[in-house]
Amino acid sequence: AHRRRRRMLLTPLAAGTVMDRYGVEAGFYLLAVWSLLLLLLLCVLPAFPVEPVPSRQGSVLDSLVDPFRDAWRMTLRPVVAVVLLGTFLRLGTIALAQSFYPVFLTQAGYSAATIGSLFSLMFLASTVASPLYGWAIRFVPGGGMIWFSAALSVAGICLIPLSNSLISVALLTVVHGIGIGFSLPTLLAEMASRTGAQERGMSVAVRSVFNRLGYLTVPVMIGWSVAAVGLAPSFYLAGGVMGAMLLAGMVLDWRVRPVVTR
């Protein structure tokens, strides 16, 4: 995970610098070469042994349908639904940051190198925040950390249009990065505490589905909003919707909290 974050720190900065000096096409060529090198590296890595998965009893159709049925039942549990809502909020803010955040910065007149540096700053804040999860949870115990980290990530990205200087943009970007950094270990720990040991694989799969839902829905909805009301108001609209979801999640979490076994 830390190696991946280091790549995320360096890649936006390098791509932005190359785009500023040699043009946009050169930046994409750099990313293509980087991806090709990673692919070649994967090809020479040794394969890991995979243990066979025990087959289920029943027809082929049952074996295909049962996992979706189990996932749906897990999703309907209130204690799990709370974590999935936090997961959606996390990935929703990331999707916004990776889609319309650079569009706004470009329209505001920032260079490609500056935008790349801001992304590196975001990933740096996230990288520093994640190991501090154990320290932070002493001040925001229990499920409250889900909503604290979500509030940071939502506010940090959705208030960007209010910024009138590079310093304020950088500060909000850091706030968003800190929220993203806190949220990942929080959501993983909460999901583990709210599901049984035999459900670990299914809980990872369900959480991954909600990860993709955030990536799938938020850019599309923001795109429609930008076409209707403009770019800056769309950030505020997204903040209002996500803020309402955050408050609803807090209320639901407070109501189901007594039944969570730790």
Structure description:
By secondary structure, this protein is an all-alpha fold. The protein is 80% helix and 0% strand. It contains ten helices and no strands. The mean pLDDT is 82.
List keywords for this structure.
262 residues, mainly alpha, 10 helices, globular
Secondary-structure map with pairings?
Blueprint: H1 2-22, H2 24-44, H3 60-75, H4 78-107, H5 112-129, H6 133-136, H7 144-158, H8 166-194, H9 200-229, H10 231-256
Helix pairs in contact: 1-2, 1-5, 3-9, 4-7, 4-8, 4-9, 4-10, 5-8, 7-8, 7-10, 9-10
Helix content: over 70%
- What characteristic shape results from the CA principal axes? globular
Proportion of residues in β-strands = under 5%
How many beta-strand runs? 0
Summarize the helix and strand pattern as letters: HHHHHHHHHH
Mean pLDDT: 82
Rg from alpha-carbon coordinates? 20 Å
Low-confidence stretches: none
SS-derived structural category: mainly alpha
The separation of the N and C termini measures 26 Å
Number of helices: 10
- Please summarize the sheet with the most strands: none
Task: Give a nutshell description of this structure.
The protein is mostly helical and 262 residues long. It is built from 10 helices and no strands.
